[in-house]
UniProtKB/TrEMBL annotation:
Record-stated family: Belongs to the isomerase IolB family.
InterPro entries xref list: Deoxy-glucuronate_isom_IolB, IolB_Bacilli, KduI/IolB_isomerase, RmlC-like_jellyroll, RmlC_Cupin_sf
Database matches in NCBIfam families: myo_inos_iolB (TIGR04378)
Keyword terms of this UniProt record: Isomerase
Transport found in the keyword field: no
Enzyme class, UniProt record, top EC level: isomerase
A Pfam family that the UniProt record links to this protein: KduI
Pathway named in the protein's UniProt entry: Polyol metabolism; myo-inositol degradation into acetyl-CoA; acetyl-CoA from myo-inositol: step 4/7
Name of the protein in question: 5-deoxy-glucuronate isomerase
GO biological process annotation, one example: inositol catabolic process
Domain of life: Bacteria
Function: Involved in the isomerization of 5-deoxy-glucuronate (5DG) to 5-dehydro-2-deoxy-D-gluconate (DKG or 2-deoxy-5-keto-D-gluconate).
Length: 272
């Protein structure tokens, strides 16, 4: 199996808590991004001390309560399935804090991390304040929920978005990359993709490749999988009949999303 493709864990880790994914610098090629997916049974509690990491806590599905020991936010979450295609609630918690997440009902929580030294205020990112954007044309259409962007001062390094791509369309396309610390032309941002499919038995194809092909992997990605993008171009193709959802986390030395299209395929942007 590809070294960039992670399959979900389904075994309960502790009472009512299942760590579905846990991507760290110790078990992946990523330095600036950590990523975790946690399933919680009703009433189950997950607690974590952040140290020198900031975290965006996403109420992916179900309802949760979140506290950083100073502020508490209750009944977060807006959907039972990501394919309701509406934004959800998140909470940003800065470094050197401890947070707790308690499930009101069965919930899936996504935890998005990047290194952080400067402590910022905890912030509730309400679903109604998440920007919704439609990108692309022809067979390159997708809908984006912008939760933490590079223009958002709520976080030091984190960028977090959700992307919906209908069947028969391509996303992250034409192939683009952001693996050079060469501003203003391109920024260096590592990235993770957490994928879901509708119906669940579907799959998508994702390729990750660099100009010199030192990385060149094409993966069949199934529901609940995570794809790591330490560098390179990373397009996603969605077969007819299935809709794609993915949640992206990006982080790097500078909080700017400046990408570079693959010159061999950039011509498609000029089609009339």
């Amino acid at each position: 199996m590809s070294k960039l493709l992670r399959k979900p864990n389904t075994e309960e880790t502790s009472a009512g808590v299942t760590i579905v994914h846990d991507v760290t610098s110790g078990n992946s090629p990523l330095e600036y991004v950590r990523f975790k997916v946690v399933d919680l049974a009703p009433g189950a509690l997950y607690k974590e001390e952040l140290g020198k990491w900031e975290c965006c806590i996403v109420a992916l599905t179900g309802k949760i309560n979140v506290t950083d020991q100073e502020q508490t936010f209750e009944n977060l979450g807006t959907r039972e399935s990501v394919f309701e295609k509406k934004p959800t609630d998140s909470v940003y918690v800065s470094n050197d804090r401890t947070f707790e997440v308690t499930a009101v009902n069965s919930a899936r929580v996504v935890l998005c991390y990047s290194p952080s030294e400067k402590q910022l205020p905890t912030k509730l990112i309400k679903a109604e304040n998440v920007g919704v954007e439609h990108r692309g044309k022809y067979n390159n259409k997708r809908m984006v929920h912008n939760m933490l962007t590079d223009s958002d001062s709520s976080a030091n390094s984190l960028l977090v978005v959700e992307v919906y791509t209908d069947g028969g369309n391509w996303s992250s396309y034409p192939p683009h990359k952001h693996d050079q610390d060469n501003l203003p032309h391109e920024s260096f941002l590592e990235e993770t993709y957490y994928h879901e499919m509708n119906p669940r038995q579907g799959f998508v194809f994702q390729r990750v490749y660099t100009d010199d092909r030192s990385i060149d992997e094409t993966m069949t990605v199934e529901n609940g999988d995570v794809v790591l993008v330490p560098a390179g171009y990373h397009p996603v193709g969605v077969p007819d009949g299935y809709d794609s959802y993915y949640l992206n986390v990006m982080a790097g030395p500078t909080k700017i999303w400046k990408f570079h299209n693959d010159p061999a395929h950039e011509w498609i942007l000029d089609r009339k």
